[in-house]
Design brief:
Blueprint: H1 17-28, E1 32-33, E2 43-44, E3 49-50, E4 65-71, H2 76-93, E5 96-102, H3 107-117, E6 123-126, H4 129-134, H5 142-151, H6 157-161, E7 164-165, E8 168-169, E9 172-173, E10 180-184, H7 185-190, H8 200-210, H9 233-239, H10 256-270, H11 286-292, E11 298-301, H12 303-312, H13 314-318, E12 320-323, E13 337-338, E14 343-346, H14 353-363, H15 369-375, H16 391-394, H17 397-406, E15 410-411, H18 421-429, H19 431-440, H20 446-465
Parallel strand pairs: 4-5, 4-6, 13-15
Antiparallel strand pairs: 1-2, 3-5, 6-14, 7-8, 9-14, 10-11, 10-12
């Protein structure tokens, strides 16, 4: 595995630099880049929204101008709150800022192209901390991390894991988007079970008790494809003590614990038949729709489902109980919840590092951060422990359950090794979905499927080790 603190180590993409940029640029709709970061960085693609920013006293000619990228979410209020926070930092700091909103579905390609071309912005709100750090383009932020942690009651473990590589801090966690269990309380209680469940044995028995194909109801809607892997198959591995990578970022998935997690998850369909047959072909909306339509009694998903119920199905929300994944039955089994989210990074080449830090301080400040969480509805949760007790999280039973009952069990998707570019490729290539399909569709034994996945993951890791 590469020493990811070495900025010279870069992955081999299999394409020439020119071909890579051309392919990605075309896919993103064309990137028009100015000179590199430090006041004028810009990489505009089709679909990117940009804010000109207010000039305040003085003009762009005599004031620093920063460019910030952020990923456009489906809630306009959340996007606007972030833009306003950045602008407030600029107004107070005497500089200009332009916030460019990248389309959610294209931001991976835009980031990769800009990183290769050297046209990243000064400051960036991204999910690709591991990839960018591997390229050596990020600024370390330990002092800023400690400062914000001190004012916000400390970061949750999952948030800290998400920005720590090689024991060093490379980003500031902006939010938490936990994956958690949703249970139809009335259905399980009618069968003599009371969610949320403590163990996966109890959960499995409850799912068997409520499954009734004749009435088109199944116990659990767990995707068996590449969609929603972070909250489902990865959570199942973690619940039994398995993990994708070790603390040093090496592939470490082929263990008895991971095998037990894979067997449990695929047995829900193959052996116990408590999942609807269609799970093998579900896209990312499959489990959402199955729960909202009453086809399944439980799913694992994010706060987006809670938001949907608030809007269109309040009765279903009132019948929903929330909790972390129950613990698996191995010695290292544990309750768990995978918690991805965004990290705010600073370009190593920016000419304005102090101004970038002012923006991050404002985003995470006591006067702005709680409003950002509220603007994101039940989709974003606090990366900082100190904001778990604001009224938004204490006065609403579902928000309270997510923030206070789920988040303490949260861990990074890649686990303690921190963000990992190998996982970015595994996810993009759909290898975890393929592993499940080997068992559920092709009839492979779980160990054989795990062996194949392990070999593919190590093949990807070798690119970074030899890069």
């Amino acid at each position: 595995m590469v020493d990811r603190t070495d900025s010279r180590a870069k992955p081999k993409t299999g394409l020439s630099r020119r071909d890579f940029l051309r392919c990605v640029g075309l896919a993103a709709g064309g990137i028009a880049a100015q000179s590199v970061a430090g006041g004028g960085a810009s990489a505009l693609a089709a679909g990117i929204e940009t804010t000109a920013g207010r000039a305040g006293v003085g003009t762009a000619a005599d004031k620093p101008e920063l460019v910030m990228w952020s990923i456009r979410q489906f809630l306009p209020e959340s996007n606007q709150w972030l833009i306003d926070s950045a602008q407030k930092a600029a107004d107070e700091g005497g500089f200009n800022i332009r916030v460019e909103m990248l389309p959610l579905d294209e931001h991976y390609k835009i980031h990769m192209a800009a990183a290769e071309a050297g046209t990243l912005p000064d400051i960036d709100n991204t999910t690709m901390v591991g990839y960018l750090q591997t390229l050596g383009v990020l600024t370390e932020l330990p002092e800023l991390f400690d400062e914000i942690a001190a004012t916000g009651g400390g970061f949750y473990d999952a948030a800290k894991q998400r920005v720590t590589i090689g024991g060093r801090i490379w980003a500031i966690p902006l939010n938490a988007e936990p994956w958690f269990m949703h249970y139809r309380k009335s259905i399980f209680e009618a069968a003599g079970f009371k969610p949320p469940f403590e163990t996966l044995k109890e959960f499995m028995e409850a799912c068997k008790a409520v499954t009734n194909p004749a009435k088109s109801i199944w116990g659990f809607g767990g995707p068996m494809s590449a969609s929603d892997i972070e909250g489902n198959i990865v959570s199942a591995l973690h619940a039994f003590g398995g993990k994708l990578f070790d603390e040093k970022g090496n592939v470490a998935v082929n263990t008895p614990e991971s095998l037990e997690g894979l067997k449990f998850y695929t047995d829900l369909l193959v052996k116990h038949k408590v999942m609807p047959p269609g799970v093998v072909g579900w896209d990312s909306s499959g489990n959402n729709q199955a729960y909202l339509s009453g086809q399944v009694a439980a799913i694992c998903n994010t706060g987006s489902v809670v938001m949907a119920m608030r809007k269109d199905k309040p009765d279903l929300l009132n019948d929903t109980v929330i909790g972390p994944w129950p613990a698996g039955w191995t010695a290292s089994g544990q309750k768990t919840a995978t918690v991805p989210g965004f990290g705010v990074v600073i370009n190593k080449k920016t000419r304005y590092p102090e101004q970038c830090k002012q923006v991050i301080r404002k985003l995470m400040s006591p006067e702005r951060y709680p409003g950002q969480l509220q603007a994101a509805g039940s989709y974003w949760f606090s990366a900082l422990k100190g904001y778990g007790n604001i009224p938004f999280f204490t006065e609403d039973p579902w928000n309270r359950a997510i923030q206070q009952d789920v988040m303490p069990f949260g861990c990074n998707v890649e686990f303690a090794g921190g963000p990992n570019p190998v996982f970015d490729e595994i996810r993009t290539a759909g290898y975890l979905g393929n592993m499940m399909s080997r068992v559920t569709v092709d009839g492979w034994e779980p160990q054989r499927a795990l062996d194949e996945f392990d070999a593919k993951a190590k093949e990807i890791a070798a690119k970074y080790k030899n890069g």
